[in-house]
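Q: Give me the 3D complex with pyridoxal-5'-phosphate.
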Amino acid sequence: MRKIHGGDVYSFGENMIDFSANITPLGVSEKILSDIKNNLYKIALYPDVECKTLVKAVAEKEKLPKECIVFGNGAAEIIFNAVNAMKPKKVIIAAPAFAEYECAADSVLAEKIFYYMGENNNFDLDEDILECICEDIDLLFLCTPNNPTGRCADIELVLKVVKKCEALGVFVIIDECFMDFVVESERFSFDRYIMEYHNVLIIKSFTKMYAIPGVRLGYGLCGNRDVIDKICLSRQPWNVSVFAQIAGVSALEQKELPEVTRKYVEKEKRFLLENFSEMGIEFFESSANFILFKECEEFDKKLLNYNLIIRNCSNFRGLGKGFFRIAVKSHKENEVLVRALKEIVF
Ligand SMILES: Cc1ncc(COP(=O)(O)O)c(C=O)c1O
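A: Here is the predicted complex, encoded as structure tokens.
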């Protein structure tokens, strides 16, 4: 079965502008590139299985003990390793959502239940999710800001969900892979509660903010060390490559980069959305670095003629035909997109 994700430049060719992968518009930094180049000789070494330098840097950033951190070959691997470690029988997924939650649940033959966040509510998480949580559920997936909608869940509601799950013995995975792009992320992230609630794993990624999808690096945070140990047992020892570890440390040394990126993305998002409004394109306000919008079926095919790839979201559960997602890219690239949209729409 072919999995569909954004960023499939291999199928479309390299002369295309790829709006389908939600990667920072600033691209990979010179610092990360030169740190990797200067260490190319380490290709002949096994990676450090304990990721010692990287874990120190992440522990400092997150202000958490090292024992509460687990690394993965991308955040995607942590989703699979966590599910594999827990072997849930019944899983709830707040949908529409990143497809790999469902794939991970399938990999352990778990029964899946979908809680649908409705279009009439801008795809926001609603109080009625609390009614779906019961004792026979083992695991719940939430994503905030959510892919593909870009909507952040209300942290007070997330707390209610976590508390109810804790009381009923349900584990919660909160995917915050796009939280780095959220202005005032401290208001929305669950990380300040992570040591308090032992039934929660937060997942984060280096892929998006630092434009390093090719090296694969993500991490999980959990106040429950037994869960971290179990996840470590379910993975192979060298899952984080030498270059992923170097890139991660290098990334965290660029302390101002996330703020600079957030400002850039906000400005460009406004530019795109003002043009969407002018063209009468229906969209959903997003807190992340991508935008979900509605257009006619196969709109993505029309943009291919302009060498532009956008994400057709019809295969997301709870969306269907006529939904599309674009990443917020550089001003020059966004202008190319807007020009093409104007030609098609007007
Ligand atoms: C919500 C979400 N979580 C996790 C991932 C996986 O990220 P990574 O590249 O770190 O594996 C993605 C990738 O698109 C995503 O959209």
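A quick observation: The radius of gyration is 20 Å.
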